[in-house]
Amino acid sequence: MDDADASAKLGLASLMNLTQISVSLRVLFTGFLAVVGVGLLMAGLQLLLTHGMADGRLGLSVEDVVYSYHGDRGGSVLEAKLKGSMKDKAPTQVRADIVEWVQKGSSEAAWDASIQGQFNEHCVRCHGGIAGLPAFTSYAEVRPYAEIDEGATIDSLARVSHIHLFGIGFIFFFVSGIFSLSVGLPGWLKAGAIGVPFLFLVLDIGAWWLTKWSPGFAWVTILGGAGYQLTGAFMILTSLQQMWLKAPTDEDAWSR
Question: pTM of the predicted model, to two decimals?
């Protein structure tokens, strides 16, 4: 190999690892990874405040997943929500009145007499004005949620599944692309960290559908979500460390 070929190879290799990329690329990659990292934290917080409150207690548990996807077959969606994630959205007496109305058969006469007013005062500000939430402005709209809770509907599962698969899949494509430029890691660890988030993502979302059918699969959802969150954090932190804290060496210039 002559000097020109060696220089060309060295120049190309230095663009293919995080220790020797330009400051501009470091800033670009860091900005993206920082936003994604904060996004993962916000996703975890949102999960705790929605699904994590399905059983009325803060903290994600197997019971939360079962209530969210399989449902509470001993009660209605309204009861589950008013005792769980919607507990702080209405006074105790209002929630008790609505639960009593549901348990007595959720008649239209009682709705017209008093329950609609309580919904108008405490519920329709969100359930009637925010896209994506079920509207609660009429008896016909509320009645299905007063029936036995069978968890997430097939329509909602299909909608949320494709959004998560496309959105999170793209995010991990770029995070993994940046991480693939890291150096000094065993090949099996590097390849595994890149592939595992996609596997856990499919496992997580597939488990939603399986839990809808059988509550025994609820733990798979927790495993899948935790798996891609932890692997994502590992790739982000490793990439940031190598860009800003790892001193480049001659060996790094030839790393793949």
Answer: 0.70
